[in-house]
Write a structure and sequence with these properties.
By secondary structure, this protein is α+β, with helices and mostly antiparallel strands. 45% of the residues lie in helices and 12% in strands. The protein has helices spanning 3-7, 24-34, 67-79, 89-94, 96-103, 116-124, 171-179, 213-224, 234-241, 258-266, 295-298, 301-330, 338-347, 355-375, 378-398, 404-417, 423-443, 445-461, and strands at 41-48, 54-61, 110-113, 128-132, 138-141, 187-194, 200-207, 253-255, 270-274, 280-283, 463-464, 467-468. The strands form three sheets. The protein has a five-stranded antiparallel sheet with strand order 1-2-4-5-3, sandwiched between helices. The two termini are 33 Å apart.
């Protein structure tokens, strides 16, 4: 048994096994008892054969199974076509499964099971189960057909140049979107179920030979250790398996774009796709990967690098700009040019609050407007954000609560924060911004630098599945070839093969 077979060896059903009885009435009695008061579970009992002596039953959940498939390719074949054939009675008793599978059911995927618990699990995942009298096995017929959203462009990761396909809430469609982009048999998809009640399908995607075995082992073992009733979104998985839940920075990257997942897999990373959500997780993740956009690779070298450098500058501005304003106006006005210092003093004339309270009021107002804009319907949310920001800022200045320069600083900070491609990453900086403001209010520039050093120390110690968060900048694993895709991106002709930072070996 090889490494991968050992790694993914786990029991699909941790309940005590309940064998299927040869008496169909006993089996139906057990299943109906389990599904008591479940009116969406459909039972269809009927007899087949020319002499109507064979008792069959199909069970499925209405809305999860494709009713047309069940009617046309299962019930019709069993109830109508099988009547014109009069097989030998002994053969029917001894080889009923082979006769049904090979000669009657015209569906693409069949399997047999011998456990009532597996019957229940398959019914709840949209399959149709066929139970036959005098036979101690059941046939699972692939019939999933629940309503689903079509493949659309992701709203959270809009690009000018790139694919318009995005993940949806169906796991198998999502894995197919990735498979289209990686046409290699080394691309593996291993599936498991997590959640004692929800039994949510979770798929682990990796490329054999590129993905680190140590990282893959960590991912699978952490997934196996999850003990929870339900998994409703990939965010549950993220919170349960991340390295440091106290950190404001995400240690797993999420995306709605299949080409982003494919690119990460080519880098030797691992993807986790969860059923019922369009957001896939990518591990390990680094500081750099959270600031990269798919457009960086689709655009030409100069354009892509200009946008990426601007993005790094914007992130720093969103973190320190309000704190820098507080430090310079409250502690170090002498460091400013005389004209600018006099202008700031004049603009703050009549403001009753110190710079920290002034900045705190404006930042909190901005956060409230941002949250209101997200929660309200799209047309109303956009109106609230624009009109609310303009009216609130103008009214605050005219009332003398804040200075006009403070409004400009907060507006620039908000615009800079929106340039971060990853929403969770941007939230981390938004939270830290208040800490930087408090540090600047107490110690000025010294407090600002102290907060920066503490944040940098935390980032140096932070890891994502064993990979340093600041790779490849960590001093223990310097490889200058890996710097070709960090602050700037090397020309594509110099990046014919992606650097595999995760495994610690260069693939150029």
């Amino acid at each position: 048994m090889d490494f991968y077979e050992n790694l993914f060896e786990f029991s699909e059903n941790d309940k005590d096994k309940i064998k299927i009885d040869k008496n169909i009435d006993k089996n139906l009695g057990k299943i109906k008892e389990i599904f008591k008061y479940c009116d969406d579970v459909i039972y269809r009992e009927f007899k087949v054969g020319k002499e109507q002596k064979l008792k069959f039953a199909t069970i499925y959940v209405e809305g999860l199974a494709d009713k047309n498939l069940v009617n046309e390719y299962v019930l019709k074949n069993l109830m109508v076509l099988s009547r014109i054939t009069k097989p030998d009675a002994n053969i029917m008793r001894e080889k009923i499964y082979e006769l049904i599978k090979d000669g009657v059911l015209s569906v693409s995927d069949l399997k047999e099971i011998d456990d009532i618990n597996l019957v229940v699990d398959n019914i709840l995942t949209g399959e149709t189960v066929l139970i036959i009298d005098k036979w101690d096995k059941a046939i699972v017929i692939a019939s999933k057909g629940w309503p689903m959203r079509g493949v659309q462009e992701p709203e959270t990761e809009v690009v000018i140049r790139g694919s318009r396909e995005g993940f949806i809430e169906t796991l198998r469609i999502n894995t197919a979107l990735v498979r289209r982009r990686i046409r290699d048999p080394k691309f593996k998809i291993k599936q498991m179920r997590i959640g004692s009640m929800s039994k949510t399908d979770v798929a682990v995607l990796f490329i054999e030979g590129l993905a680190s075995k140590d990282t893959l082992k960590q991912v699978v073992e952490r997934l196996k250790k999850i003990d929870i009733d339900s998994i409703l979104e990939s965010g549950y998985i993220e919170q349960l398996v991340e390295d440091n839940y106290r950190s404001p920075f995400p240690q797993m990257q999420y995306t709605e774009r299949p080409e982003k997942v494919a690119g990460a897999l080519y880098e030797g990373r691992i993807a986790i796709i969860v059923d019922n959500t369009p957001f896939a997780l990518i591990v390990p993740t680094t500081f750099n990967s959270l600031l990269q956009s798919i457009e960086d690779y689709n655009e030409r070298f100069i354009i892509g690098n200009a946008i990426r450098i601007l993005r790094y500058i914007a992130v720093m501005m969103s973190l320190i700009l309000p704190g820098l304003y507080i430090a310079m106006t409250s502690f170090h006005p002498g460091m400013l040019p005389t004209v600018l210092a006099l202008y700031i003093a004049g603009s703050r004339d009549g403001v009753p609050f110190p710079a920290f309270i002034e900045a705190f009021i404006m930042e909190m107002s901005l956060e409230l407007l941002r949250e209101a804009g997200i929660r309200l319907p799209s047309p109303i949310g956009a109106t609230i954000g624009i009109v609310g920001g303009l009216v609130l800022g103008q009214a605050a200045v005219e009332a003398g609560i804040v200075s006009s320069l403070m409004v400009i600083v907060v507006a620039i900070t908000a615009i800079a924060a929106y340039s971060t491609p990853n929403y969770s990453f941007a939230i981390g900086f938004r939270i830290l911004r208040f800490a930087f403001m408090a540090a600047a209010a107490f110690l000025g520039l010294y407090g600002l630098m102290l907060a920066f050093v503490i944040t940098l120390t935390h980032l140096c110690n932070l890891k994502s599945f064993g990979v340093p968060y600041l790779s490849p900048f960590n001093i223990y694993n310097i490889n200058f070839k890996n710097f070709r895709d960090t602050f700037i991106k090397a020309p594509l002709c110099k990046m014919k093969k992606t650097p595999n930072i995760i495994n610690g070996r260069d693939k150029y």
